[in-house]
Amino acid sequence: MDPMVVGMAMVGAGIAIGAAGIGTGIAQGQIGAAAVGATAENPKMFGKGMILLVLPETIVILGFVVAYLIMGM
Amino acid sequence: MLRPEEMTRAVVVGSIESLDVTIECLYELGVMHLIDFTEQDEEFRIGQPLPNASDASQKLLKLRSMIRALAIDSHKPASKLEVSDIRRTLDQALVTLDLNTSKKAEARQRIQSLIRDKESEIKALEPIEPFGIPVEDYEGYETIFSLVGLCRTDPEEALRSRFPDAEVLKDVRKGDVAVAVFALAQDRPEVTRVLTEHGLQELKLPKVTGAPSEVIAKNRADIAGLEKDLERIEADLESIRKKFADLIVASEEDLAIEVMKAETPLRIAASTNSFVIDGWLPTSKVGELQASLNSLCCGLAFVETLPMEKGDEPPVLLKNPKPVKPFEFFIDLVSTPKYDEVDPTIVLFLTFPLFFGFMIGDLGFGLALTALGAFIRLKFKGSVDAQKLGAIILAGGILASIFGLFVFAEAFGIPFHPPEAHPDEHSWESVASIPIHPMLDKMTDINEMLALSLLAGWTHLTLGFVLGFVNNIHHNRKHAFAKVAWLLILLGLFVEMMCIAGHATWTSGFMNDTVRAWVPDMTTEVAGIKVSIPAVALIVIGVVGLPLTEGPMALSEVIGLFTNLVSYTRLAALAVGKGAMALAFNTMLLPLIFDSHNVLFVILGALALFVTQAFFVFFLGALSAGIQAIRLNYVEFFLKFFEGGGKDFSPLRYLRRHSVATK
């Protein structure tokens, strides 16, 4: 395959996971701050806070899948 | 395991004369979770506290105030005191203590406040000391006024030019200027304004007479005398503390228990001649309670068990074998399971160390973690939570060592043997030849590790849905069948993934030969991707089943299930990431140590290697592996079946830490 195409595909894979990571980071930052506050008031909120905290991870996981599919092609 | 301790609703009824003995018996056994009595009627009302309640509370109050006065809140007696000794000596000791401690503590407080007053007088008089004017002369005039204060800058010139008649005294000190102004009464607002411009802070003079220097000297002498008194009192209190601290702390505990027992009738139903204590107790303990009541109350109180009614919510006491118990720590962090819910502790016991071990996967770090876990357990014997956490780290460390030894064949990020692709890489061969070769290489077998992670995810999620089915089958069939629909979708997704992977990895090859051998081998190709028709069929059946069982909203979560499954690839990602980090530090620093032939470089290199390995790879690695391992359980696994919200079993009982009761 044309090395240019391979190179562009690699860049695409990088953008896919990198941008998804940034999105997740922004979302988790805000949720995490609130979750820590809630846990400080009531330690039993740790589990619930954690569940809410990881919801945005879906975004980066989908980014990972896309990157992996590009790498496989 | 999987189910909490079986509970029975029971009432203890008896004659009112046997109430105190019955309460004593319940506290001794510590098996009854009381249900507070609230619905009063003509027959039964809330019970009266036992006769000793008020006396015990009063003594307790006294003891607690003494504990504060003597500052012995955190005192721990060297040995436990016998309860009979405490009770025999307490009354007399209380009289002695009352005479000494309370009076002395009061005197100490008075002296301390006197010293504070004298010190604040000194502080107020110090600025005007150089002026030499008696304190009483600063006030009591009709046509002139005086003003004393501290200014940030010197106001003398400004005052003299504006008010030539005014008398201005000043003393330039370090950081400010002490000023005393005597001026005509009608100039007061103007003088104040000028002084304010120089940052005036007015001083209020104390109501004393005489020259400031004399007052200050007298106050200093008084303070010295008071401090001597204070020292004497402190010494007296110290000797009281030495003599009575053990007794006070132990009897505070004993009296607190007495008061708790004596006030228990406030939570139960009582009539003129009888009482009824309603509550839950483990089914296995009913016989024990009856036997104790028979022997202690001579037939005046007995237990009656009641059948469980709809809507009853028994308290939950998790029941797990000893090695599994520490993992209840993770359940406590979320929520207690409901009584009729599956207790997932055993699954955590199996999966947490496995996930953790796979992610760390290093003999050296594994052994270090094992040692850390053992150290925590030995060091913090008193703390229940530390014991549990120690056991969890210990288990994770053991699994990490096993993975490191047999699967990844590496210790401290350095492989036992150099990988085939890089024969000149540093390895343990230069120290000893270990006859174990890696089954997986973290840097090259990434696909294999991804496939293994997906397999772990499928197994874990399948177990989650099975537990969800078990939880729901008895009270909500529809929801139970929804779990079956989810299971079909999950199986379809997994089969499709294995179909795409084919025999590219050993794991996917194995799954294709076993799990997929059961489904018909029909594949087609869509946009260059292999699609298994039975897998699609499974997904479609599941998707059709969801709106019928869980409602149409469930459809939006199908993508969520896919991400749940892919989420397990973090197992591989962390293992690879940690391996790569260790490799990077080793590649940079090992040549420095072994090839530089310069002692300074060797020492520096070794130090840098130790710090980076210890901090980045060991500490951060263990922390993130621990968080990810528990997160996979909390989020991916628990959400498939766990509701929580159960009531903790908290029976009537007490804990003696400083006292001991011999029967």
In words, what does this structure look like?
The complex is a heterodimer of chains A (73) and B (663). Helix content of chain A is 89%, strand content 0%. Chain A is mainly α and 73 residues long. The longest helix of chain A has 39 residues, at 3-41. By secondary structure, chain B is an alpha+beta fold. Chain B has a domain at 319-439 and 569-646. Chain B is built from 18 helices and 16 strands. Chain B has helices at 19-29, 53-70, 83-125, 156-162, 188-197, 212-262, 286-297, 328-334, 345-360, 363-379, 384-407, 446-473, 477-501, 506-514, 533-549, 558-567, 570-595, 599-637; strands at 7-15, 33-34, 45-46, 81-82, 144-151, 167-172, 177-184, 201-202, 269-270, 274-282, 301-306, 410-411, 414-415, 523-526, 529-532, 659-660. In chain B, α13 (477-501) crosses α14. Chains A and B meet through α2 and α3 of A and α16 and α18 of B.
Comma- or semicolon-separated keywords:
heterodimer; A: 73 residues; mainly alpha; 3 helices; rod-shaped; B: 663 residues; alpha+beta; 4-stranded antiparallel beta sheet
